[in-house]
Amino acid sequence: MEKILSLVEQHNQWRNNCINLIASENVMSPACEKLYISDLMHRYAEGTAFKRFYRGLKYVDKIESLAEEEFKKHFGANFADVRPISGTIANYAAFSAISERGDKILSLGIENGSHVSHEKAGAAGFLGLEIENLEYNEDCTMNLEKSAAKILETKPRFIVIGGSVILFPQPIKELRQVCDKVGAKIIYDAAHVLGLIAAGAFQDPLKEGADIITTSTHKTFPGPQGGMILGNVDEKTAKTIQLRVFPGFSSNHHLHRIPALYGALREMQEFGKDYAGQIVKNAQALAKELAEYGFDILGKSKGFTQSHQIVVNCGEPGSGHIAAEKLERANIILNKNIIPGDGQSPKNPRGIRIGVQEMTRFGMKEEEMEKIGEFIKKVILDNKDPEEIGKEVADFRKNYQKIHYCAK
Asked: How far apart are CA 394 and CA 317, in angstroms?
């Protein structure tokens, strides 16, 4: 026990000294952590609220029902399922509910930002779907004319947009008009931008014409790790999705997540406008700072980003991996990432992906983003000793330990 406790403590201490720029992570507030740690983590609840296969769940049913009703109301949906334990499980459930093996679908493609679960190697492939990709430009924007032509030619069962790299809103209204001509559904994977959507700082997928939102709940939305499905769907589709979640792809759905998920939504309702607005300001400030140092930032023709993400082209094949490894040694945590032109293989990406949502939640603003840009420049462009820069980073990070945009 002492050894594992020591390792956990080492991890906690190290990460408290780091600048975390992983675009798919965030931290819960102390209030949500209290909701997360409860007797619920020991309990089982197969089925849906008030229709269980286990006993002892009279309060669980109320909690889950309350959470789903609040999410439906907030996002303008007629259906919500908070049970998926990850965004990938949410995708499995939604994809399989509206398609059959052999159906054609269109995704963005890995190099244009889709999640692996949208592709052959992930959920869509395991479900036996035939996957082709929508058309994209080099500046990380969709080529709407070519994508529309592909939808009309392919006649997919559904298209899936959103995903792992999403710098700008997607043209949902325009895609809706095209999809209606061939009877295709639109699934919007909001895993990365759910918090921005919740705060009205990005786009409103359901209002703009998406049928279903699949999502995780721990990126720009600062809730517990898990997944969720929202949508405006008919009763049969809603029931099919529920059956895919359980018994299809999960059994118990980690009940202690649900109160914390509800708590995070209430926090976003109160503090989300300021939080999401600062996220976008910070991402744009950091992108501008890096560009001024000479980094090749994708999306520069449109102002670099309108989300929490920044994508940097580091140059040669494999350079993204090298940059991410050097920055980790300097206590700056981010990930290598495929960018347009790299193809579908993740082995030798040229890019790195940066997300500012967690450091924003620790109170950093534009001035701090400029400092982070300077640290990155010292490591990557100036070839300074990463360990020495890491000491500067740790000293800088000491001033940002308190979580903001939540109840005091």
From this structure: 30
Report residue 239: phi and psi, to 5°: -65, -40
Q: What is the dihedral of CA 355, 356, 357, 363, to 10 degrees?
A: 160
Q: Can you give the CATH number for the domain in which 70 is found?
A: 3.40.640.10
pLDDT tens, residue by residue, 117-127: 999 999 999 99
| CATH code of residue 338 | 3.90.1150.10
| pLDDT tens string 243-267 | 999 999 999 999 999 999 999 999 9
Helix, coil or strand: residue 321: helix
Structural domain including 368 reads 272-397
Under 8 Å CB-to-CB from 59, ≥6 apart: which residues? none
> 130, 245, 253, 108: which is closest to 189 by C-alpha?
108
Q: Which two tokens stand for residue 175?
A: 């895609």
Angle between helices 386-397 and 319-329 (to 10 degrees): 60
Predicted TM-score (pTM) of the model is 0.97
Average pLDDT, stretch 355-361? Answer: 98
Give the dihedral of Cα atoms 99, 104, 109, 112; nearest 10 deg. Answer: -90
Helices assigned H by DSSP within 308-356: 319-329
Q: Are residues 334 and 306 in the same domain?
A: yes
Same domain assignment for residues 252 and 393: no
The verdict on 284 and 155 lying in the same domain is: no
Domain count for the chain = 2
Question: Do 147 and 231 lie in a common domain?
Answer: yes
Q: Is there a single domain that holds both residue 111 and residue 204?
A: yes
CA distance 159 to 148: 11
Q: What is the DSSP annotation of 228-263? A: EEEE---HHHHHHHHHIIIIII-SS--TTHHHHHHH
**Amino acid letter, 344:** Q
